[in-house]
Amino acid sequence: MIVALCGPPGAGKTTVSTRVADRLEARGESVRLVHSDEFSTRTYEQLYERVAEGPEDVVWLVDATFYRREWQDRFRTLGDVRFVLVTASLETCLERNRRREDAISEQGVHVVSREFDAPEADLELDTDELSATEATDRVLEAFERWRSA
Q1: 124 touches 87 (CB < 8 A)
Q2: Which domain of life is it from (predicted)?
Q3: Kindly report the CA angle at 86 between 113 and 55, in degrees rounded to 5?
């Protein structure tokens, strides 16, 4: 199964995906977590290749904005892909981005937020309303439903 956590910069994707990976691994699941920040060029092509060429018997967690529909559509061709839309207000995203060690430009946050083409999400999380722990719990609950479907 591939779980793609998407949303604007600063929404909480990395926090949630890292916590989900930790909790799944603690339960004995084989997990691969890949962040778009790992790639400096051809980001979505490299994310796609990493997952497509990687082992199939693991849970893949992919952390990226996926703000363009074409990237979402391409990932859906990989099979059992679930999109988790992680959102927060623009003000929250900007504030969180300012506190990041690897912050992107504020203009970048504005552009992605404005141009974001939200996917048909299997799960939506508003991190203005949910704590990181609550958001993590919701992903894990959804994961169990998806796996048993």
Answers
A1: yes
A2: Archaea
A3: 115
Please, which residues have CB within 8 angstroms of residue 7's CB and are 6 or more apart in sequence?
A: 13, 65, 85, 86, 87, 88, 116
Please report the sign of the dihedral spanned by the C-alpha atoms of residue 116, residue 92, residue 101, residue 2: negative
Q: Is the pTM of this model over 0.70?
A: yes
Per CATH, the architecture of 2-148 is what?
A: 3-Layer(aba) Sandwich (3.40)
- Given this model, what pLDDT does residue 102 score? 86
Residues lower than pLDDT 50 in the chain:
none
HEC per residue, the chain: CEEEEECCCCCCHHHHHHHHHHHHHHCCCCEEEEEHHHCCCCHHHHHHHHHHHCCCCCEEEEECCCCCHHHHHHHHCCCCEEEEEEECCHHHHHHHHHHCCCCCCHHHHHHHHHHCCCCCCCEEEECCCCCHHHHHHHHHHHHHHHHHC
For the chain, the structural domain boundaries read: 2-148
At 132, the amino acid letter reads A
